[in-house]
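Posted in: Structural Biology > Protein-Ligand Complexes

Title: Requesting predicted complex, iron/sulfur cluster in pocket

I'd be grateful if someone could produce the 3D structure tokens for the following input. Sequence and ligand are given below.
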Amino acid sequence: MTETPVSTAPVEIFDAAPSITPVLGPPPPKDILLDVRDLRTYFHVMDGTVPAVDGVSFSLGRGQTLGIVGESGSGKSVTALTIMRLLEIPPAEIASGEIWFDGREVLSMTMDEMRKLRGNDMAMIFQEPLTSLNPVFTIGEQISEQVLVHLKCTKKEAWDRAIESLSLVGFPSPEQRVKQYPHEMSGGMRQRVMIAMALSCEPKLLIADEPTTALDVTIQAQILELLKSVQQRTGSALLLITHDLGVVAEMVDDVIVMYAGQVVEQGTVDQVLVSPRAPYTMGLLESIPTAEKRGTRLEVIKGVVPSPFNLPPACRFEPRCPYAWDACSQVSPPLVVTGDGQGQLARCHLETSLGASRSVAAHAAHELALEPDAPGQLTGGLA
Ligand code: SF4
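-- Reply #1 --
Done. Output follows.
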């Protein structure tokens, strides 16, 4: 082995201390790997302040998989970057909250502690692998450099670990592939390299931010299958960020739906996808194309995500919600445990005493909208 890994560690462009010293509550139980509590991340820009993440709380157990779903601008990626402490401060401000990871509070850590944690115990896979890989170094140099930074080992051991990681993610002839440059690989292969790099130090938490968005459909399925099998083999927990409910149904145990910086629904994947309680989640499900809906006009959620500089005063979904009434523009709905008492949460007045009398009709309308021949849908059109 003649290759000598050189300094190619992913550059941490954004790396700064949070702007708060959190007053800490008690640590979570040992079986909880990640516990995010009332997290608020704001961006101060010329036009004002953007509450990108506004009071988000959730937990992820060891070895479990949690999906965060939402449209662009819902705050899901900023939540992940805040957990990794990879935001530029300013303009970002972590205004409040606690992030407990493996029994330690992340926002209280020094940057040195944080650097040791990143890559070692928590790792992130980004959307576009080409922008995350250095074009002038081989992938072996890049993976082994990360191993050298985080694990006490020799260069030879780091190089061998790079080959092992490529083998783990399904590269044939990893001894040869490790000497290739990123431009010599397809998009799917580069994403495999990113997964190999993230797994090279056997992290306890893997955060995957839209890991298949830049890939074509067949490669998407392969990468998701790979993520699932690798996670099962290594026992890592997975935080999967996506806008694709199909991916969520395939991959995760629990799911959070975010809208305009807030959690609007939370529960197991069966609860949220089969019996959604928040109208935003209902709208997302109604707008999924299915074989049964072939030939009918697809439902859409009308309107667009509100400007973060001009959020609706109470319920943020109110301008787009088909079930809205006066109270929705006057009183902010809290995130409440839904009626079935099984731990599903929803942020909607239909789940509180304010809207109890309207709830049954709203859910009946949702069921109807899922029917392929629902009134109001047009037939014909698609062959
Ligand atoms: Fe719709 Fe009102 Fe519920 Fe908001 S609170 S999601 S506007 S029904």
